[in-house]
Write a structure and sequence with these properties.
This protein is mainly alpha-helical and about 160 residues long. Helix content is about 60%, strand content about 5%. It is built from five helices and three strands.
Length: about 160
């Protein structure tokens, strides 16, 4: 898809005043809103879905009881925070101008989306190689993963400018 190969940032551009122009086309904004809506529903449903495991990694690797306590105590707070971030991004999708804080929320939400989709795809590290043919049942998930990766990269570029 030419969208991913372009050198010009088609998502967000920094301004001289510390804010950012959101230049993403309407159809892609709708796609982000839909994907983040699904992620929000998944996070709201609770921690039992295995694809959420990377969003709440273990705090105590060598003590299952301590980790269960931590997850119980911190889990609701983490879910509430994650849902607030997703909501902030969804609320800003119609805006033309974003603050740096809003853009950081985008980065966090996109990262969560990539982690969940990557978990479903079985991605274990950044050194994965995927060539998906159209008949692959995972092709739609790979498209979402690539889309979220492109968006995240664009946001990082703008924040680093």
């Amino acid at each position: 898809m030419a969208l991913f190969g372009s050198r010009k940032n088609q998502v967000v551009r920094p301004r001289g005043d510390g804010r950012f122009d959101l230049v993403l086309e309407a159809g892609l904004r709708d796609a982000i809103g839909s994907l983040l809506g699904e992620l929000d529903e998944l996070v709201e449903a609770g921690p039992d879905d295995p694809s959420l495991r990377r969003l709440t990694p273990p705090a105590y690797l060598d003590d299952a009881d301590k980790d269960a306590e931590y997850q119980l105590l911190a889990g609701d707070e983490l879910r509430t925070s994650r849902r607030a971030t997703i909501d902030a991004v969804r609320s800003s999708l119609g805006e033309e101008l974003l603050s740096e804080d809003e853009l950081w929320a985008w980065l966090q939400a996109l990262n969560a989306l990539r982690l969940v989709v990557g978990t479903r795809l079985g991605i274990e590290d950044d050194e994965h190689d995927h060539r998906v043919d159209a008949d692959d049942p995972a092709a739609p998930l790979w498209s979402i993963y690539d889309f979220a990766t492109w968006l995240q990269h664009s946001v990082i570029q703008a924040l680093g400018a």
